[in-house]
Amino acid sequence: MRRLVGAGLCLAGLPALGGAQAAAPEQVRLSGVLPPGVRVTQFALTADARRVYYGDSTRAIWLYDRSDKSSVRLAGGENSDLVVAPSGNALAYVKRDASSADQHIWILPLDGRTGVASGAERRASARQGDAPAFSPDGRWIAFAHDDAGGVGQSVVVVAVGGGGERTVVPLQRSSMSAIRWAPDGRSIYYSVNGPPPCDPEWSCLELKPAFKQTAGSLRRVALNGGESAVVVPKLGNGWPGLSNDGTLLVYGDTSSARLVVADGSGKRLSNLPMPARQTIEGWLGPSTLVFSDRGDSRRLRAHSLSDGSSRVLIDSLESLVEISPSPDGQLVSAVRCVGQACEVRVVGAGGAPVNTIKLPERYGGGNVWSPDSRSIAFMCGSPAAGANVYAADVASGAVTRLLSIRALAVSLLWDADARSVLVSATRGTGAARRAMIQRVTLDGQARTLRELVLGPTPIAAQVIDGSHALVIRGSSVTLATLDGDSTENVVLPPSNDRYAGYVAVSPDGQRLAFRRSNEQNEGQVKAIEVVNRDGGGRVTIDLPFVVYPGASGLRFLGKDQLAVLAGAGDDEPVPAIYVVNVATKAIQTLVRFPQLFVGEMNVSPDGGTVYYVSNEFTGQRVFTMDLSPLRAGGRP
Question: Global pTM?
Answer without folding.
Answer: 0.70
